[in-house]
Amino acid sequence: MTDRTSAARAPLVLAPFMALCAALATSGLLAPAAARAQDREDAQAWSALLATAQTAPAPPNFALWLDVHGRRGGANTIVLLRPGVGFAITPWLSVWAGYAWIPTFDDATSTITHEHRIWQQAILSPRLEALGLAFQSRTRLEQRFSELGGDVALRVRQFVRANWQPSPDFPMGIAVWDELFVGLTQPDWGAPQGIDQNRLFVGPFLQMAPWARLEAGYAFVYLDRGDRDLYAHVLAVNLFVSPRPAPEAAAPEAAAPDAPPPEEPAQAPGDPELRSADEPTPEIAATGGA
Asked: Are the C-beta atoms of 245 and 54 separated by less than 8 Å?
């Protein structure tokens, strides 16, 4: 694909993103006018590194998980560190479990509140290669502990994502995802029961390598807090990294003990078809998936 073709295709890829952002900015469905008098709005900036590392070239295999987040709002800063371990059952199904630590730095009181979580999740990742579509569904269960109280809060989160890439040769695409949070209990430290929040994201992504993807865009976050709901407009930047070991080369067959040694091929000076064992071949590409 030529540079001219890639440049011509870029506006077409970004057009749905720009149109959807304009619709979200002008739609009254996101923040009803009647509720604006008592509800709150906030502009925030979120960044995240989300990494998984596979222990084998293909499933079934164990894997490692780590995501690190920094979120700046109008009244506080939140940091999230979430390590975990998992097992890939098939290329499209994996299960995970881990721990999360979330300190919140409050601007008004200059205090830090700590939350700890134990989490379990299952991920489905089907693909429609012919249409350039990759889907993901993640169901996560959290057990939340806060120093503000002694109860354990249970919460379930349902995440769905669709990535569209017009061509494997074109490194850009569009990502859309949504996540719904539902509290299952009412703890003594204030976590809500029922619908907690919803996050909707849309934005372009850049496939920097088979194992690295960068996405940036707009996220609308709705927090259900009774008569004081919060509508957050978020600039979100996420880096996804997912290295995987390269497949092992097949071992050459051993020659029979009485077989004669192979003849040495005649090599003309500079013959490109005959490479030394230490010289890399250009046909070998990096493996892995983002």
From this structure: yes
Distances (CA, A) of 194 to 141, 157, 197, 232: 14, 12, 9, 20
C-alpha span between 10 and 17 (Å, rounded): 12
Query: DSSP assignment of 45-60, as one string?
Result: EEEEEEEEEESSSSSS
Q: Model-level pTM?
A: 0.76
Q: Which 8-state DSSP code applies to residue 29?
A: T
DSSP secondary structure code for residue 143 in this structure: E
The amino acid sitting at 168 is P
Domains of the chain (ranges plus CATH)? 40-241 (2.40.160.40)
Instruction: Give the C-alpha separation, 231 to 234, whole Å.
Output: 10
Report how far apart, in Å, the C-alpha atoms of 109 and of each of 64, 76, 199, 289 are: 37, 10, 27, 44
Residue 11 in 3-state DSSP?
Answer: helix
246-273: per-residue pLDDT in tens? 887 766 665 555 555 555 444 443 333 3
